[in-house]
């Protein structure tokens, strides 16, 4: 397919008809105000509802707290055997005196980092978060800045963290899309630590507390990650399920009760596993498009780095389409391997997948005649 637009420096969209799907599936409905469900392997967006709304994170912020800790361990700045002191601030703000989620850390005691991690993940311990924050950054405010900086570095573009716990703070905002990005990052980057999210219980200070994730005990394949609640945003959850050779990641918020959260999360995860089939759109090495290169002797051939697969609803009334977007003009010389576009796949009106596209071939500058002709055509287009 050859496509040679001459429209100045603009974002060009080339639409490809990939296929037509059979009719009549029902769209999934949920009582959650915000939700985002993604297939881990293909990156297919299976469901999206207000996924870019910014909401208070509640205890879902603890996922970011743990990412900062895991990154510090991975880089060698910390070890699981490092110990942290329990300050009066941590004890009063997040400990037994606070009447919030706590691991009941004793004032002025020392606790191993691994125990703090398990307290935060399994027991949602606010005292554990503050102890870690003060030990790593000197204060919770400093640690919150580290959280936000780290969040932006790993692709959480619309989230800000005001503290390590998720307790109400005017600066703290997250989106469901960002939380799924974070959950996927934790699972793939730190598999040695991800196991903590499936622990059924943890005992500290002779007090045994069960994991607050209501889906772990249902035997449906859920192995993480976190629940949260605030008066403003309602009940939320970030979860992952691995079953039938597939893994899905889910973030939901805005539910009205513990029971509703458990029911809605279970329903959408099981729907995501059962209601989709995998389809290959392009084989590995298959040409996806050819596009003109301004001043070049030949067009650029666009391919993905591997096969392009997507999960499709078993039944769905709309057409499946793909659009290639790139900034014109692509200018010669162009090196092979350069990223020059994006393949965007839509199911109906929903953007379900984005895949970077790369130039397979190098494109040298053409003859003076061809360069002049490109310039003349572009000038003519400009003055139309």
Automatic annotation (TrEMBL):
It holds the Pfam family PBP5_C. This is serine-type D-Ala-D-Ala carboxypeptidase. Its EC number is 3.4.16.4. Residues 276-365 form the Peptidase S11 D-Ala-D-Ala carboxypeptidase A C-terminal domain. Belongs to the peptidase S11 family. It comes from Hoeflea algicola. It comes from the Bacteria. Residues 1-25 form the signal peptide. GO terms for molecular function: carboxypeptidase activity. Keywords: Carboxypeptidase, Cell shape, Cell wall biogenesis/degradation, Hydrolase, Peptidoglycan synthesis, Protease, Signal. The keyword Cell wall biogenesis/degradation applies. It catalyses: Preferential cleavage: (Ac)2-L-Lys-D-Ala-|-D-Ala. Also transpeptidation of peptidyl-alanyl moieties that are N-acyl substituents of D-alanine. Removes C-terminal D-alanyl residues from sugar-peptide cell wall precursors.
């Amino acid at each position: 397919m050859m496509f040679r637009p001459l429209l100045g420096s603009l974002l060009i969209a080339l639409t490809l008809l990939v296929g037509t799907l059979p009719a009549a599936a029902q769209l999934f409905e949920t009582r959650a105000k915000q939700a985002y469900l993604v297939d881990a392997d293909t990156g297919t967006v299976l469901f999206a509802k207000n996924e870019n709304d910014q909401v208070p994170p509640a205890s879902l912020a603890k996922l970011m707290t743990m990412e900062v800790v895991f990154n510090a361990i991975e880089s060698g700045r910390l070890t699981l055997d490092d110990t942290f002191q329990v300050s009066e601030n941590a004890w009063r703000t997040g400990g037994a005196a606070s009447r919030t989620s706590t691991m009941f850390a004793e004032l002025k005691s020392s606790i191993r980092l691994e125990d703090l991690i398990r307290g935060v993940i399994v027991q949602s311990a606010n005292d554990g978060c503050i102890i870690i924050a003060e030990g790593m950054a000197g204060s919770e405010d400093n640690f919150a800045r580290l959280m936000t900086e780290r969040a932006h570095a790993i692709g959480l573009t619309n989230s800000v963290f005001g503290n390590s716990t998720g307790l109400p703070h005017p600066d703290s905002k997250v989106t469901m899309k960002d939380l799924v990005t974070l959950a996927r990052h934790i699972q793939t980057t730190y598999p040695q630590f991800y196991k903590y999210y499936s622990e059924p219980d943890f005992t500290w200070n002779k007090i045994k507390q069960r994991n607050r994730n209501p889906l772990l005990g249902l035997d449906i394949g859920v192995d993480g990650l976190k629940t949260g609640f605030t008066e403003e945003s309602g009940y939320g959850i970030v979860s992952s399920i691995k079953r039938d050779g597939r893994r899905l990641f889910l973030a939901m918020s805005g539910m009205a009760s513990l029971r509703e959260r458990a029911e809605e999360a279970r329903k959408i995860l099981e729907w995501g596993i059962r209601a989709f089939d995998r389809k290959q759109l392009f084989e590995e090495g298959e040409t996806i498009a050819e596009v003109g290169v301004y001043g070049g002797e030949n067009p650029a051939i666009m391919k993905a780095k591997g096969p392009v697969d997507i999960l499709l609803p078993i039944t769905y009334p709309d057409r499946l389409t793909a659009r290639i977007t790139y900034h014109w003009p692509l200018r010669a010389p162009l090196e092979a391997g350069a990223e020059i576009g994006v393949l965007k796949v839509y199911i109906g009106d929903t953007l379900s997948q984005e895949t970077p596209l790369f130039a397979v071939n190098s494109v040298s500058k053409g003859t003076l005649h061809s360069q002049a002709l490109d310039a003349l055509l572009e000038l003519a287009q400009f003055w139309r």
